[in-house]
Specification:
Helix content is 50%, strand content 11%. Helix 13 (319-346) runs antiparallel to helix 17. By secondary structure, it is α/β, with parallel strands linked by helices. The chain is globular and about 90 Å long. It has an 8-stranded mixed beta sheet with strand order 5-6-2-7-1-8-9-10, with helices on both faces. It has a two-stranded antiparallel ribbon with strand order 3-4.
Length: 486
């Protein structure tokens, strides 16, 4: 037990022990998902302006499909994020690393696998000394055009951010499986907004949306959660709740009773931020290379560390399932998007008063969203925030919205009910019930017919009153013309 950290470091430093962890079956699923996305989902997204309304609506690039799983670290300054990364890498220094008590990491740093044997870079130690380590750094602007890395989309944040972003390329074995994103510490007060020339929370959300695991690091000595950190957490939460874990670091520096109080306080604080009785998973320990100061909970620290490492090591194996999860969420969001835009477009008058009608629709958006949910049998969890949507609708012209197309909705439903399940067949490790043989093609036809019938009934209900309005308007127009003529 006393040699446990050394054994862990030896394992993480052994290049032959760790492989990429990606199976041929998982790769086949990801390739199939990419094909479905580019051929069926992306054209609908582009034609409906999905990216302008949805926070995750930006097109998924090829480099993102092929990227390693990402682990995002977020926390206030001096919570041990960089030391935590070094610990994960088996005590290995990486280029650009500096550890100290003050806010030392002033950049977003992507720690990625690579580099040649002869490459060397200088890193700073906590005593302001320096030493050589294998690896190299790549600056932010270069990263946006590096085809092997999934950072092309960061160009939207401009040079101000890219000057504060770099990659640390090092041959650590763990990085064969995951890419780690180290972030600057969240500052308190006006420093968070004024000291940075880019929107920190928006950048954090960009990384969070594309990460497979999000670790919130807290210092057991100073657990106070600032308003700024709370704002960042609330920003990254939508669509990412299932990825978030907490790490209570430096837990060996406090005594038994104090640790119990700190642990309980963290759970209470997270419950308030997440507004749910279910708390996120908390890993408790001391994630650095020094001996424990208090070993009252030594076994718990060791157990939590093993669980955390296991979760990290298993990320590639479950990467396909997570991508399926993200695509299904995206398809559901796209379906809701089409229903909302099509419904709003139908409510506009035919000839005059469109701008006034558009303003009235935005003002009564909560009740309209409720009507849309009932009309199309949508779930509460899929509906967008009415205030956020209203802000985006005010900058839009409802006339440019696409009409509600029954075929597109059926196509999206078939993706969830037929196409994606076929890709997932056998991937989840669940055995089939062999006594029940299902004809997939027949099942697809039945599902399609059911969907078409249900949607047709709903769309006809919407079209009947609208057809009457159009008919009356045409008669009125013709009457006015005839009166002028005769």
């Amino acid at each position: 037990d006393d040699d446990h950290p050394r054994r862990r470091h030896a394992m993480l430093s052994d290049d032959s022990f760790i492989t990429s962890g990606i199976t041929k079956q998982s790769k086949a699923v990801v390739d199939g998902l990419r094909h479905l996305y580019t051929q069926k989902i992306l054209p609908i997204e582009k034609s409906s302006g999905f990216a302008a309304f949805h926070p995750n609506g930006i097109e998924i690039r090829d480099c993102e499909w092929e990227a390693r799983p990402q682990v995002l670290l977020i926390g206030q300054y001096s919570t041990g994020k960089t030391s935590f990364v070094r610990h994960l890498l088996g005590g290995r220094d990486f280029p650009g690393m500096y550890i100290g008590p003050e806010p030392t990491t002033d950049k977003f740093v992507a720690v990625v696998h690579g580099c040649e044997e002869e490459d060397e870079s200088e890193v700073l130690t906590g005593e302001r000394g320096s030493q050589k380590t294998r690896g190299r750094t790549i600056k932010g602007n270069s990263l946006t055009v590096t085809p092997e890395l999934p950072f092309a989309g960061l160009g939207e944040f401009g040079t101000a951010f890219l000057n504060k972003f770099e990659a640390s390329v090092t041959p650590a074995p763990l990085l064969k499986r995951v890419t780690i994103i180290d972030t600057p510490g969240v500052l308190s007060g006006e420093k968070q907004r004024l000291s940075r020339t880019y929107d920190f929370s928006e950048v954090a959300r960009w990384f969070a949306d594309r990460s497979d695991l999000i670790l919130l690091l807290f210092d057991a000595h100073k657990l106070d959660i600032s308003d700024e950190l709370k704002e960042v957490i609330e920003k990254i939460r939508p669509y990412n709740d299932d990825k978030i874990r907490c790490v209570l670091n430096k837990a060996d520096g406090v005594g038994r009773e104090q640790l119990v109080r700190v642990f309980g306080s963290l759970l209470w604080s997270m419950g308030k931020i997440f507004q749910t009785p279910e708390v996120v998973r908390v890993y408790c320990g001391s994630f650095w290379d020094k001996e424990l100061q208090h070993d009252d909970f030594k076994d718990m620290f060791k157990h939590d560390e093993e669980l955390l490492f296991d979760e990290l090591m298993n990320l590639p194996a479950s990467a396909a399932a997570r991508k399926v999860n993200e695509i299904v969420k995206r398809v559901r969001a796209l379906r809701v998007h089409l229903c909302i835009l099509g419904y709003l477009k139908r409510q506009l008058p035919i000839f005059v008063g469109r701008m006034k009608a558009q303003a009235n629709l935005i003002e009564s958006l909560p009740s309209i969203l409720s009507d849309i949910k009932k009309t199309f049998n949508l779930s509460d969890g899929d509906m967008p925030d009415s205030d956020v949507l209203a802000g985006k609708l005010r900058a839009s012209d409802f006339n440019s919205f696409p009409k509600l197309d029954r075929k597109l909705l059926i196509e999206l439903d078939n993706l969830i009910l037929v196409d994606i399940p076929e890709l997932m067949r056998g991937v989840g490790g669940v055995s089939e019930y062999e006594l029940q043989e299902v004809d997939v093609s027949r099942k697809s036809v039945i599902n399609t017919l059911k969907i078409e019938s249900s949607l047709k009934d709903k769309l006809l209900e919407m079209e009947k009153p609208m057809s009457l309005v159009i008919f009356v308007a045409i008669i009125a127009s013709l009457s006015a013309i005839l009166i002028k003529l005769f």
